[in-house]
Specification:
The protein is mainly β and 920 residues long. It has eleven helices and 49 strands. Helix 9 packs across helix 10. It is globular. It comes from Paraprevotella clara YIT 11840. Keywords: Signal.
């Protein structure tokens, strides 16, 4: 914890930043339905937005290309400003999460980031299973952008305290940094690394679908629309039902079955075609064959009036050509953004035929993905498209690795020289990994800091093998890169929000230090105590019902407690936060404003206890003097108010694309013919994948999906708004399932089985193993599980994978089940529980140093060294000449090296160098 002087200084700087942000937001332009801002005003707003509200981008450099259960993942995070490319000076905290192949959270780490970088490590414990894991990283500031409401069933909202808490839970994001990598089974023999991957055993065996496979053909008219009376230039992308790219010939027909165009895919299922003159009366469709089946897909609807945008480029110019039809005879604006910052702006006046053009010098634009927007004075986007500007920085050598031998003897000393070819080398932040090449694994998620910052971060979804687009600067690679730009229907930088045409809500400020935010609400009375299945009177429903904890139709909070809460307080209260770490105790108090509180916390490393209490402000001082801790340790006592923290972390994982967990094969060396893709199976030549199944439609309970602390589960449910901060065993299981599993985006409820130390309370059918029912136990034994202070862990089992939400596998009777097994503390032990909110709060993660053995003296006979990562340094120091010397020792066998070095220069240039036996 920090001293008070340091805390006050940080608070002063934070208040200055808050003031600046709030002034900006309050001065953001608002537009009503009668306003016509004009082209220049809209362009100015966009420029101001880009300058004052830049986004942030994240990249994680990891120490290896694959891992084995029991390994440690070492990583270095780089966060940059989107407008400048330099390391961020906005956020000071980075969040990094490790997610399972199914999409469940393993661990979240909070990292202190004083200079735009941070490093940490995750241990792949023996309780984990093999598969393709994901690292997800973000700052709190990044969560202001690309938000949308995650699809869900309307009935789920009724389980929350109020509508706003439900909206907060279902908040999702279009684009967060993600890195996927394989984790293999723990080797059975030390030093021998077979790439075996035994997937999670908790899965049913789903019958493969037969018959005509589904295909996904999407169309992307250049500029955004097909416009009547104008030529239509259209890009398309064709994938199978698994997301694998498909090669095919495509024919475009009109409604009279006349051929309008013929085309074929040219790269990764993508291609283009031209409709010479689009007709408003026509219904166009595309026809193609896949295997023995024929498919028909309709093209987008034709618009009667609109504008098309054609972009071509050469080494010196970007040429934009527009054609309009049916639009007013008026000027339009053309604006180019890069990283949210305006690169160019001009106005165009179409001629009598609706045509106009503009030439923009390439050297006036920033390298990377650029966004061209054509708009009118009312703020309507007439056309928009992405294009890539290549100044060949990707091929410019900023970092070289020297003095590397082809092979090293066991325990041999290794000396490597790094050289930075840039100004101010001592200000460059760089990390390096040196590993045993023999266990490297090639994957499609193989981007570098260069490809991430210049390309992938500005595109939605996964770009497999992004380095391909820059391995050569020829017409084919430029064509393929432009195809990638054309098949993007999403924009990282929403022009209409930046122009003030649509509202932009700033929910989070840049975190410059640890902050505690939350809200206070009225509490409500729990139902009277009863045993499992007893009939009790439910006030909200006005009737007596048996209240089973796993009832098929869950009771809403309104049903159970008889009132709907808006979450608004009638008066402000005082919130007291007490932080306890060892013998250090810090207490802070604050009056709420609109029922909310925001307070700086002490600087914390590791874990500490946090107590949150809300008290009537008028009684606060009196209570403080008396230190009234009556019923402090009574979990059944009613707190004065319901206090909750903001859980702003993303809840939902993104589905994997086909190429996330496919074994790498060079796509550019294969002709993907449709007949060769009918099976839709992944190529598994280098990896052995096993899936231990329990038989058709039978859930396997050998290994839990999640093991969570019971108190943390209660806190999570309370902070999501699934209870009012009081523990009720009858509704707790439903709360836990909603908090950790969600509603599966299904309108019907999934079956939940409760267990008390492996003994089931309820049964469904043969899909779940049958055991001795706990109802044969005495009431005294059952009641132990009704008290939070007795509960140690919750073991959660399910065959549901959040990454496969809405999958065909979950239809009908194949809907997944969930089992929640309550475990008591061993030996009749108990934990302290409290009337008010108590958390085990996690501060900044403390990362140990990477271990480098010292063999300067000959190793003892029989010394075993099986390291795969031989050297990891997250912060390489360079001298004034830009040189760094690395010294370490080889492992216990003859080894060829693979080397990855990545970083950011002071001027924002990504620096990378990759060296392997094939490139030496």
């Amino acid at each position: 914890m920090q001293d008070e002087t340091q805390k006050k200084n940080i608070m002063k700087r934070m208040l200055l930043w808050l003031n600046a942000i709030f002034i900006l937001c309050s001065s953001s332009p608002a537009q009503n339905s009668t306003d016509v801002p004009g082209i220049d005003t809209l362009a100015s707003r966009v420029k101001l937005f880009g300058e004052t509200l830049p986004q942030e981008k994240v990249y994680l450099h990891i120490d290896n290309t694959c891992y084995f259960v029991g390994d440690t993942i070492w990583y270095k995070g780089y966060v940059t400003r989107s407008d400048k490319g330099t390391l961020t000076d906005l956020s000071r905290i980075l969040y990094v999460e490790l997610l399972t192949p199914d999409g469940y959270l393993v661990e979240r780490q909070q990292l202190e980031m004083p200079d735009g970088t941070a490093h940490g490590a995750f241990l792949l414990t023996d309780s984990l299973y093999a598969g393709y894991y994901e690292l997800r990283a973000y700052t709190r500031w990044m969560l202001n952008f690309g938000r949308y409401e995650h699809p869900h069933s309307p009935y789920t909202e009724e389980m929350f305290y109020n509508k706003q808490m439900a909206k907060d839970y279902f908040r999702d994001y279009d684009k967060l940094y993600s890195r996927v990598f394989p984790v293999f089974d723990r080797p059975s023999s030390p030093g021998i690394y077979p790439k075996d991957m035994t997937l999670r055993p908790l899965r049913r065996y789903f019958r493969a679908r037969k018959g005509k496979p589904d295909m996904d053909l999407k169309f992307y008219p250049e500029g955004g629309a097909l416009v009547a009376g104008l030529p239509g230039h259209v890009a398309f992308e064709l994938n199978d039902e698994n997301g694998q790219h498909v090669a095919a010939e495509v024919t475009i027909y009109n409604r009279h079955k006349q051929i309008i165009a013929r085309t074929h895919t040219v790269h990764r299922g993508r291609g283009t075609f031209v409709i010479p003159q689009v007709s408003a009366e026509e219904k166009y469709k595309a026809v193609f064959r896949y295997g023995k089946y024929e498919y028909e897909v309709e093209l987008p609807e034709v618009e009667d009036a609109g504008c098309t945008l054609r972009v071509t480029q050469n080494d010196s110019l970007i040429h934009a050509r527009i054609e309009s039809h049916g639009l007013p005879d008026e000027e339009v604006g053309l604006q180019i953004l890069h990283g949210g910052a305006v690169q160019a702006f001009t106005t165009l006046k179409p001629d009598s035929q609706g045509k106009a053009s503009a030439d923009i010098p390439t050297d006036s634009l920033a390298e990377g993905v650029n966004q061209m927007t054509l708009f009118d004075g009312r703020g309507h986007i007439l056309a928009e498209r992405l294009f890539f500007v290549n100044h060949h920085d990707l091929s410019r050598t900023l970092l070289t690795v020297n003095n590397v031998k082809k092979e090293y003897a066991p325990f041999e000393p290794i000396e490597i020289q790094l050289k930075l070819h840039t100004s101010l080398p001592d200000s460059t932040r760089l990390s390096i990994s040196v590993r045993d090449h023999s266990t490297d694994e090639s994957t499609y998620d193989n981007g570098t800091i260069l490809t991430e910052m210049l390309l992938c971060s500005d595109l939605k979804g996964f770009v497999e093998d992004p380095g391909y687009y820059f391995e050569a600067d020829d017409s084919i690679h430029r064509r393929d890169l432009d195809l990638l730009m054309l098949v993007q229907g999403w924009r990282r930088y929403e022009w209409r929000e930046m122009a003030g045409v649509e509202p932009f809500r700033l929910s989070f400020l840049p975190e410059r230090m640890q902050t505690l935010t939350g809200s206070v609400h009225p509490t409500y009375s729990l139902l009277p105590e009863a045993d499992y299945g007893d009939t009790i009177y439910i006030p909200g429903m006005g009737k007596e019902l048996p209240l089973y904890t796993t009832a098929g139709t869950p009771f809403s909070l309104d049903d159970l407690y008889g009132t709907t809460y808006s979450g608004k307080m009638k008066k402000e209260v005082t919130v007291t936060a007490t932080f306890a770490q060892g013998t250090d105790i810090v207490e802070a108090s604050q009056d709420t404003k609109g029922g909310r509180f925001t307070m700086l916390s002490p600087i914390l490393h590791g874990d500490c206890s946090l107590f949150l209490i809300a008290t009537d402000s008028a009684k606060f001082n009196k209570r403080k003097e008396k230190r009234n801790y009556k019923e402090f340790h009574d979990e059944e006592a009613y707190p004065d108010y319901y206090v909750k923290q903001d859980r702003f972390y993303p809840v939902f994982p993104k589905p994997y694309s086909y190429y996330h967990d496919a074994v790498f094969e060079n796509m550019e060396d294969n002709s993907f013919l449709p007949d060769s893709l009918v099976s839709g199976t992944h190529l598994m030549s280098a990896v052995t994948v096993r899936n231990k199944r329990g038989g058709l439609r039978k859930l396997n309970l050998k290994k839990p999906t999640l093991v969570v602390d019971a108190y943390e589960a209660f806190n999570l449910a309370a902070d999501y708004g699934l209870n009012c901060g009081m523990y009720d065993w009858r509704t707790f299981t439903k709360q836990v399932c909603t908090a950790y599993i969600g509603d599966m985006n299904q309108s019907r409820h999934y079956f939940i089985q409760e267990r008390y130390d492996s003994l089931p309370l309820n049964h469904k059918d043969k899909t779940l193993p049958v055991g001795v029912a706990i109802t044969n136990q005495t009431e005294a034994v059952r009641r132990k599980y009704h008290k939070l202070y007795n509960l140690d862990k919750l073991y959660i089992y399910t065959d549901y994978s959040p990454r496969e939400e809405n999958s065909w596998k979950y239809s009908g009777t194949d809907q997944p089940d969930v089992v929640v097994d309550y475990r008591l503390f061993p030996g009749e032990a108990r934990q302290y529980t409290f009337r008010d909110r108590r958390y085990l709060m996690t501060g900044y993660s403390v990362c140990k140093d990477f271990y480098h053995p010292d063999y300067s003296r000959r190793p003892l006979p029989g010394t075993a060294d099986y390291r795969r990562t031989l050297y990891w340094n997250p912060d390489v120091k360079f001298d004034a000449q830009g040189e760094a010397q690395l010294r370490f020792y080889n492992n216990g066998k003859r080894t060829a090296l693979s080397i990855d070095a990545e970083g950011i220069t002071q001027t924002g240039q990504p620096a990378t160098s990759t060296l392997s036996p094939s490139t030496k």
